[in-house]
Write a structure and sequence with these properties.
Blueprint: H1 4-13, E1 30-33, E2 36-40, H2 53-66, H3 81-94, E3 98-102, H4 105-116, E4 122-126, H5 131-140, E5 143-147, H6 152-161, E6 167-172, H7 184-193, E7 197-201, H8 216-219, E8 228-233, E9 243-247, H9 249-258, H10 260-263, H11 270-285, H12 288-306, E10 318-324, H13 326-338, E11 341-342, E12 345-346, E13 356-361, H14 368-383
Parallel strand pairs: 2-11, 4-5, 4-6, 6-7, 7-8
Antiparallel strand pairs: 1-2, 3-9, 8-9, 10-13, 12-13
The protein binds pyridoxal-5'-phosphate (PLP).
Pyridoxal-5'-phosphate is lined by residues 104-106, 130, 132, 172, 176, 201, 203-204, 233, 235, 243.
GO molecular function: 8-amino-7-oxononanoate synthase activity; pyridoxal phosphate binding
Catalytic activity: 6-carboxyhexanoyl-[ACP] + L-alanine + H(+) = (8S)-8-amino-7-oxononanoate + holo-[ACP] + CO2
Keywords: Acyltransferase, Biotin biosynthesis, Pyridoxal phosphate, Transferase
């Protein structure tokens, strides 16, 4: 038996220990965490819908109508008219023939890969993909081949070298720790040429990028169908919980038959589907949320450049400051926290060794004064 205490103590000494704060207020920029107030820049609630009264009211009406529990898996009477309507609305939103709800994005990624790939197949992934995509390699049994970040040329060399068999290319649409955007058009051209599936995980693009917030594929002018598979999450830009996969008719029917993380799990509550339908309506109708978000990001980048802060190449609401040393990033995050501002330090193994950073994320629920407060605090923390 492993000495868990010794392993935990080592983690602490390495500055890698993770712990949770307890919030006792809703997901809004000004929060109460561990009993104290702070201004938070660490949520993925990009459109400011996570605490929106209309979404909450839809959840309540849904609970009045449907109750709380779905009671069973989708295939066993857990699939309600609310889930079904949401699937149709999501498919329409992203311009796909069909969409299928999953309980979480993590499960959706595992489900797609396990359904499409098996032993002997090849899974090509961007080096900086989200952990849930990487874990899909293990669960599918396919051989994992990682290509250089956002580099279709490197991917092509690896595709050329690989033996025949099923192939799937997977990429974050917006990279979760860097905020930069995948070259999806280039990836799609390669996927077509090599008869490979392309799975784009748009957890951070959906609701935020592209015309009407339809995501990073829409921004590149392409729609999920045929060999192109979109995974979107509902707990970030849309402010609720869960995920979906969008794509062609045969793909979705195959997932219903074979994605184990779909088949062997309880359907999410129908009331939650009603809440997401309300959030999707707000996302579609209130384009000002995206405009405001973009303006806040622009204000931050201008101010940060004036302060000489180590900005990264990102024009999405994910704005990391690359610090490098893990302990330095942790110290900076702690200094900001003393100033009442919450910005997490992201450390290995979530990011590569030597690439620790502060991950700042913006929401349409922030205002300009809050961005200025962040800039002031960053300026002082970096001097001190
Ligand atoms: C958050 C995230 C997921 C997981 O989605 P959940 O619904 O939170 O499980 C998958 N991929 C990426 C890129 C993410 O950022």
């Amino acid at each position: 038996m492993k000495d868990l205490r010794a392993v935990l103590d080592q983690r602490r000494r390495d500055g890698l220990y993770r712990s949770r704060r307890i919030a006792d207020s809703p997901q809004l920029p000004e929060r109460r965490l561990d009993g104290g107030g702070c201004l938070s820049f660490c949520s993925n609630d990009y459109l400011g819908l996570a605490a929106h009264p209309q979404v909450g009211a839809a959840l309540q009406r849904g609970a009045d109508h449907w109750g709380t529990g779905s009671g069973a898996a989708h295939l066993l009477a857990g699939h309600t008219a609310a889930h079904h309507a949401l699937e149709e609305e999501l498919a329409d939103f992203v311009g796909a023939p069909r969409a299928l709800l999953f309980s979480t994005g993590y499960m959706a990624n595992l489900g797609v890969m396990a359904a499409l790939l098996g032993r002997g197949d090849r899974l090509f992934q961007d080096r900086l993909n989200h952990a849930s995509l990487l874990d899909g390699a293990r669960i599918s049994g396919a051989r994992l081949i990682r290509y250089a970040h956002r580099d279709p040329g490197d991917l092509e060399r690896r595709l050329d070298e690989a033996p025949a068999g099923e192939r799937l290319i997977a990429s974050d649409g917006v990279f979760s720790m860097d905020g930069d955007v995948a070259p999806v058009a280039g990836l799609q051209a390669l996927a077509q040429r090599h008869a490979a599936w392309l799975l784009v995980d748009d957890a951070h693009g959906l609701g935020v990028l592209g015309p009407g917030g339809r995501g990073s594929l829409a921004q590149a002018g392409i729609a999920p169908a045929g060999g192109l598979v979109l995974m979107g999450t509902l707990g970030k830009g849309l402010g609720t919980f869960g995920a979906f996969v969008a794509g062609g008719e045969d793909l979705i029917e195959t997932l219903i038959q074979q994605a184990r993380s779909y088949v062997y799990t309880t359907a999410p509550p129908a009331a939650l589907a009603e809440a997401t339908r309300a959030a999707l309506r707000l996302c579609r109708e209130e384009g000002w949320r995206r405009d405001k978000l973009q303006a806040l990001v622009g204000r931050f980048r201008t101010g940060a450049a004036q302060l000489g802060l180590p900005l990264m190449e990102s024009d999405t609401p994910i704005q990391p400051l690359l610090i490098g040393d893990t302990r330095a990033a942790t110290r900076l995050s702690a200094a900001l926290e003393r100033a009442g501002i919450l910005v997490p330090a992201i450390r290995p193994p979530t990011v590569p060794e030597g690439a620790a950073r502060l991950r700042i994320s913006f929401s349409a629920a922030h205002d300009e004064a809050q961005v200025d407060r962040l800039l002031d605090a960053l300026g002082s923390a970096l001097e001190g």
